[in-house]
Amino acid sequence: MKFTRRSFLAASSAAAVIAAPLGARAANLPRNMRMVIGSKSTGGDTYQTSAMVADALSKKLGINIKVDAVGASDAFKTLARDKRGTTIMIFHDQSYLGYLYGVTGYDNIFADYAIGPTVAINPGNAYLVPASSPYKTMDDILKAAADGTRIRVAIQPGGVSEIGFSAMKNAAKVRAPGSEDNIVAVNTGSQSDKNQAMWDNLADVINGSIQANEQFTQLDSSDPKAMRFVWLTARPETLEQAPEAGMGGTDRAKMLSFASPETSVTLDGSKDFTFDKEFFFLFNKDMDPEISKAIDTTLGEIYASGEIEERQKAAFFIPNYLPQDQALKHLEDKRDTYAKVIDDISSKS
Amino acid sequence: MFEIITPLFLSLIVGGTLVGIIFGAIPGMTATMAVAVCLPLTYSLGLDNGLALLLGLYVGGISGGLVPAILLGIPGTPSSITTTFDGYPMAKRGEGEKALKIGVVASLAGGLISLLVLDLFAPTLADFAIEFSYVEKFLIIFFALTVMAALSSDMLLGVFSGVLGIFVSLIGVYDISKGGNGEMRLVPPGLGYWLENGFSLLPVLIGLFGLAAILEQAEIGVPKGHSTKDIKVGAHSRFSFNVFRGQSFNLLRSGLIGTFVGILPGVGGSAASIISYTNAKTFSKTPERFGKGEPAGIMASEAGNNGLTGGALVPLLSLGIPGDSTTALLIGAFTLQGIQVGPLFIGNNPGTWDAMIIAMLIANIAMFVLMYFAIRYFALVVTIPKHILFPVILMMCVIGAYTINYGIMFDVWTLLIFGILGWLFTKIRLEVAPFIIGFILGPSAEVYFVKSLESFGTWTIFFTKSWIAIVLWVLIVGSIAGSILMARQKRRMEDHG
User: Fold this and answer.
1) Which CATH architecture has domain A125-274?
2) Nearest CB to B182 within list A51, A104, A315
3) What DSSP assignment string belongs to A104-145?
4) Global pTM value
5) Which ranges does the record mark as transmembrane (chain B) (predicted)?
């Protein structure tokens, strides 16, 4: 057969048609969507969970969805610009905590964007001490603060890392007013910087995660790198959904011992403070509501089938689909709780 | 151990290395981008095969940067900036093929040295790496910055250019994710929307090196009917391994410097080749030949940046902390497969550890074979008439700048602004090399300097923190003194005609 230019063009066109996604669910749903995320890392939890959701959605809807790790500031700008609905965003609680802490580049997401469904929780947010630390528990830390000892906590200011620190100060204030001044922030950057602050004896407590720090808790206590969990901020109901084997040498039962109610960091003297790092969609406020509705409905079907849940659990995420309307109420309640904690301690470090 | 070497494993490494070389060779595309693009594929490949692909991309991506650095004077990746200093002058005098082969052999040497160090000493070196706090990291960056003086043709203007580069790099928000306070600074009124994150490195780099060179050529003009036949690839540029005679120590030192810099998280890959290059120049018997087409300069730069590849895996596999931006992506591959990376990784996953070492070894060999034998075709780039070549380069630069941050148009404007600035620099005798080194190292220098003072509360900590700090001060003072002596010697030679 002679391969002419015309036959080449015909074959190319046929291939393009076959490769194109077949029939999007909503007539006005774009065939190609861009999912921007609030992180610049393609190795982190935001990218990981977004990639899973984008993969499932694109298969179910028959459209292309590309995940771009542009970072919070550029993601918000891009989302705000695109009213056509071709850009959607996934981020976590940092999106409103950044605004509450007054970080540059963070808008009030509840006023400026449409809140979409929630998709997953990373239950790993943790606080650790060196294995050789005199503080074995959060109770020891709060008692030491009440006794006038200065406790240095390494965090990355302005978000998920700081909210647990704010909660510690709040708990210290509730237990012994004035002792919150003895809990001070050591502002660092990445997890590597926080670990290094501990090894350099610049911090008594560091913010970390089960995923990044668990192996350090398995080292022999004589190893200068060895660490110990003192607090996991996740709700017990969340951790109970984690695999029983947990992660590495820390099983689920052990994880629960570092979380409320066994490890108590009080919110108001009666309830414990808890924090789940939750991932959810953000949409342009002026976007066609049919598009967000199509995404929401499809996600509901995806989660009902159970496949994505298995994939999320295997990667140590807790599946957490809440439809758009419930998600808004849920996240507003969370925001109000944390806004009160932040206001009460006036910690805007 | 060798049962993991299946045809799929081998083809993924070789294919990954080839794709990595292509990414590295296109200005604006980097090893990090290559790994990011292919990361989702690893989910279906399984951990060992997935890592084989990613490590091939990593080694290929780092190595490919030497091609445009030598042939076009545009560093394909930030870590190949110093390769342009001697590679491009060699290409201009018709020794492009020779320069490329020197670069490829040096890359192989650097890669193998770092691999050996990784295999034998990873956990021990990770323990050593945590001895480096903010203070020691600042001093390493400071040491790398002292190279500005050595690389300048006029020391005063060179240092000024470098300081200007640092100043420009600090525009935008002092990023909280790096330990900053999140405040915007040095941004002119009304430009906050665009300059919130400052200028991106790669568009600045491509603008200063690529676009500025095109503008310069446009100013000179291409004579009618003239092609670039004045740059011949042929007998007089023939490569011989004799060029490495007496350079074993340079290769070893540069490979080890690259490995060492890779081991330190947050110091950055560009510092590896910059420090290697400065050392080669400082210890050379003919330092005045550096920057004019000295093969030892290419060897130092390429052995240094490929030395980084094994080094950056040390903290990743021993502490779960990536040594550079590309290895940060490798964590994603482990996480996708449900594997924890941390201090117990090597002991808990001996099979994966072996697979990674073998993959790195094969990737380095594949890189050498693919590049060494393809060089004669790469080198033909210089025979393309400039009126065809330059528009193509310009288009590639614009595409590279636009894609680097996933489609930010301001990055294209950055490319154009810095292209014009680079062209103007030559008019007012400012120097591009010190400027870009200042621009690259400035943000890290700021963070580590401020954090040192915040953490320890005294200036004296820079001198008293540890024995490592004292050693680094000796190197810094030696580097500055060496630069001053070289400048004086150069002036004396010029005075005597």
Assistant:
1) 3-Layer(aba) Sandwich (3.40)
2) A104
3) TT---HHHHEEEEEEEEEETTEEEEEETT-S--SHHHHHHHH
4) 0.84
5) 52-74, 99-122, 134-151, 156-174, 194-215, 255-277, 355-375, 387-404, 410-425, 432-450, 462-487
